[in-house]
Amino acid sequence: MHDRLPTLADVEAARSRISAHARLTPVLRDEALDAEIGARLHFKCENLQRVGAFKFRGACNAVFALDAAAAARGVVTHSSGNHGAALAAAAALRGIPAHVVVPERANAQKLRNIVEAGATVHRCAPTLAARESACAAIQRETGAQLVHPYADPAVMAGQGTTALELLDQVNGLDAFVAPVGGGGLMSGCAIVLRARSPHTVLIGAEPAGADDAQRSLAAGHVVPVAQPRSICDGLLATLGEINRVALATHRVEVLTVDDEAVRAAMRRLWERLKLVVEPSSAITYAVLCAQRERFRGQRVGVLLSGGNVDLEAWPF
User: Fold this and answer.
1) Spatial CA neighbour of 275 closest among 87, 35, 34, 28
2) I need a labelling partner for 180 at 20 to 30 A (CA). Which of 130, 189, 205, 307 fits?
3) Which of 88, 109, 84, 108 lies closest to 97 in space, CA to CA?
4) Is 292 a member of any domain?
5) Are residues 139 and 23 both part of a single domain?
6) How far is it, in rounded angstroms, from Cα 306 to Cα 296?
7) Is 103 helix (H, G, I), strand (E, B) or coil?
8) pLDDT for 242-280, tens place per residue?
9) Smallest Cα–Cα separation from 244: which of 204, 301, 291, 200?
10) pTM of whole model > 0.90?
């Protein structure tokens, strides 16, 4: 499955594979937030998923799809947070080793989650080259299987199970909004929604300071941002090529907002939904606030992707 885009059948197989482990997360409504946007909003609460993020779905699918011989050698990834914790948790469930390469200055709460899940943590410089070099060294030493945070069809298929659940929970969506970082979540969900709900408009939400997905879709090839900057620490990764192809194929439009809009949205979601959501998650509501007229009168699926906030860094 590593040389092609996943299909709806792959996502359905992923749901069967992870159903004993992943949580069925709730969909919440709020009348005040509906009134603010002028739409019917359906918040899919992946902040309540295991390890506090949707990432558990993709990591779990990748781990449990390995054959016994490959699994015994363990898994390795590079991650600044949620994917690393997710892979560690999934590996623990299968009883296999997990190695996570973590860049310096990673989110403190997310690093604690990785350690608590039982992974062996390897620190590196905060560059993609350093991450990839460290992963390659661990692969050579251990034979561990690389599970990329987003540019992996098994991970993409696992993330797509979020949309399968949402379609079971909500009868008809005019639009769907999810965050875009590396693109694993949005591409997996796009595969499902295009197949099962082809009229639904698919919107990716991206920080203005890390707008490589928007640029890449416009250019027809991956266009990295040299120094991405945003409080949305989970959305700073460069879009994967396989993910770009998926977003383009399934006609995903990417909209951007600045960090002040994200801060305001995050505070509002905490106030109204009584849920902890991280900036990378609140960006979906920030996009709705910035584009109210576009969504007026529609039924909108809003993906709250995670809730791992370093509370020491937030002066509420």
Assistant:
1) 28
2) 130
3) 88
4) yes
5) no
6) 26
7) strand
8) 999 999 999 999 999 999 999 999 999 999 999 999 999
9) 204
10) yes
